[in-house]
Amino acid sequence: MISDNISINSAGHLCFAGHDTVELAGKYGTPLYLIDEQRVRERCRIYAEAMKNAFGGDSHPLFASKALSFKRIYEIINEEGIGTDIVSPGELYTAVLAGFPMEKAYFHGNNKTDEDIAFAIDSKIGYFVCDNIEELKAINAEAGNRGIRQNILLRITPGIDPHTLEKISTGKVDSKFGAAIETGQAEEITAAALTLPNIRLRGFHCHIGSQIFEFEPFCDAARTMLSFIADIKAKHGYEAEELNLGGGMAVRYKEEHPSISYADNIAQIGALIDSLCKELGINKPTILMEPGRSIVADAGMTLYTAGTLKEIKGFKTYVSIDGGMCDNPRYALYGSPYTVMLANRANDEADCVCTVAGRCCESGDLIQENVALPRPKRGDIVAVLTTGAYNYSMSSNYNRLPRPALVMLDGDRDYVAVRRETYADITRNDV
Length: 431
Ligand code: LLP
Hints:
- This protein has helices at about 20-30, 35-55, 70-80, 90-95, 115-120, 135-145, 185-195, 215-235, 260-280, 295, 330-335, 425; strands spanning about 5-10, 15, 20, 30-35, 60-65, 85, 105, 125-130, 150-155, 180, 200-205, 240-245, 285-290, 300-310, 315-320, 340, 350-355, 365-375, 380-385, 405-410, 415-420.
- It is of the alpha/beta class and about 425 residues long.
- Helix 2 (about 35-55) runs parallel beside helix 9 (about 260-280), helix 5 (about 115-120) crosses helix 6 (about 135-145) and helix 8 runs parallel beside helix 9 (about 260-280).
- The strands form three sheets. Strands 4, 14, 15, 16, 17, 18, 19, 20 and 21 form a nine-stranded mixed beta sheet that branches. The protein has an eight-stranded parallel barrel with strand order 5-6-7-8-9-11-12-13, surrounded by six helices.
- Ligand 1 binds near residues 207, 292 and 293.
């Protein structure tokens, strides 16, 4: 199996985190998001421990909550003692509602409005990860209005090509995010931050992209950022206390994908950072990382009910499901790979090559093409694996479809963390 929290029981049913998924589909209905709570906790611990060992001091992970944001997830990561990265006032609001300690929250984004900035400061946000000079001035002004000095990191573009999909690559020089070292704008924004009275510059941030299998791009990023820190120290006498290396480590969506040891990767980055700091003559900064996908992706699974099977002789066979791009837009957007199974007949021979199609009124609404399944029948339960990251968080009400419920699996226990939307929810704001 693609992940060790998935198995098949004696009834031939797919099990997830020890639960029979066919029973869960019966109990909660479909489409249904499932999240394995223990897997999320395990991953938080792997990152926290590996980072402490590799980087020492106060180094720790921040969960990138754009991957999966709802109240309960902030409670879980808080119980695990790690911080969070939020990118919008909506994520901020959710974290506050969940009682998350906001001093451990970092506010990202390339266009924070004055209202966002005021809301975050009033919510006692720990840090802004500041993207550009205009924003720097706006934060300085709002902090000044409140008589505080606001902690910030500056988002720097290190000019690294991480060899991932163009659309999820963010560290290259022409990215919409951050200030590039190559163009001199990174130094310029640093100099500006050092002059502003209501800003406390704590260090720098970079994020090179997402779903990165190779380990070298992270080393390249660390090398570039530490050299930048040394350069700034030499030119401006300022030495960064914190370096945030962003997220981006890949997960297995298909059997052919390699599995990654996050702890080994972190240990190697740690060794490199130690030697680079000595070589460059700088103090080792506190290191932060922002894993999103690698904390929650394989903690997730989505269940659907199969509807129509449509065979277009000589062309293809479609199996339609009761969800689609509205609950998982990733194939439509990026052509992302997924493993698909029939949960109620998990041991049957996979003798039918199908395209899994959603129910939206749009021909690009596909979940996956060319998957081998036992010939699907109306009423079968279709499971899409590894959907914990960027599925619920990227869902929409396209075609006015209600969002699925999100159910947590925790040992023997299963409980609803996000209720299924109703038609009334969808029309609530229609005047
Ligand atoms: N930190 C920053 C500043 C980010 O922009 C991101 C992701 C992360 C951390 C977390 O990266 P992760 O560990 O999850 O790779 N919607 C796309 C992914 C976009 C990622 C955007 N930034 C997808 O579904 O693949």
